[in-house]
Amino acid sequence: MRLYNKHILPNLVHFACSLKSVMRQREKIVPLARGRVLEVGLGTGLNLPFYDASKVNKVWGLDPSSEMLDRAKERARAVNFEVELIGLSGEDIPLETSSVDTVVVTYTLCSIIDADQAMKEMARVLKPSGELIFCEHGAAPDAGVRRLQDCINPIWKRVGGGCHLNRDIPELIERGGFKLKSLNAMYITGWRPASFNYWGTAELTIS
Ligand SMILES: C[S@@+](CC[C@H](N)C(=O)[O-])C[C@H]1O[C@@H](n2cnc3c(N)ncnc32)[C@H](O)[C@@H]1O
């Protein structure tokens, strides 16, 4: 399993995250980021080309996987703003309280072990005037798909690097101390249990 997690999984995840339908989702939200940006779960840096360099001062890219961050280095070098890669988890963000203008999280809340703690950390580091920008797959609205998600989830988590198919993304964000400003949801092209997407923006509840 160690060999799989180190060598095979990063390539599988990168492949799934590079699908055309997923890249179209990034295009919808990443350009909204501004100022000092924290991206939680940077992965292989697939969002980096979608940031608007005229609006972004710096991006801190946090990810506990050195295999993923190694693959992000080239994309980080290719953009016109500073990128600092940090090999740590979202549950314990090494940034000052109220220090970033935007937190970006895409296709990562499914994989974070303690997602509630990570949301609290995102709320802590965000300035009161700041914005959370998210795009995640999660719990589907249709009973049949939802049953399949719940059923497959235990096996999926083991082969998918801890990815949960059935997390209620809006609820998770709100529980973390955020108020949704915009929320969109639909199936994107792909395997239905893993393709119901939620995306939008949120602000701190007490700002
Ligand atoms: C499916 S990938 C998505 C990567 C990237 N956000 C994207 O949109 O392409 C999930 C990422 O979450 C990262 N991850 C897993 N646990 C995490 C944690 N506790 N904190 C932050 N990132 C985590 C994984 O290492 C992986 O890079």
Short description:
This protein is an alpha/beta fold.
Number of β-strand runs: 7
Beta fraction: 25-35%
In CATH, the topology is named: Rossmann fold
Strand order of the largest sheet: 3-2-1-4-5-7-6
**CATH superfamily, called what?**
Vaccinia Virus protein VP39
Mean pLDDT level: 97
pLDDT < 50 runs, ≥5 residues:
none
Order of helices and strands: HHEEHEEHEHHEE
CATH classification, class level = Alpha Beta
Structural class: alpha/beta
Largest sheet: 7 strands, mixed
Overall number of structural domains:
1
What Rg do the Cα atoms give?
Answer: 16 Å
Distance between the termini: 44 Å
| Helical percentage | 25-40%
Number of helical segments with 4 or more residues = 6
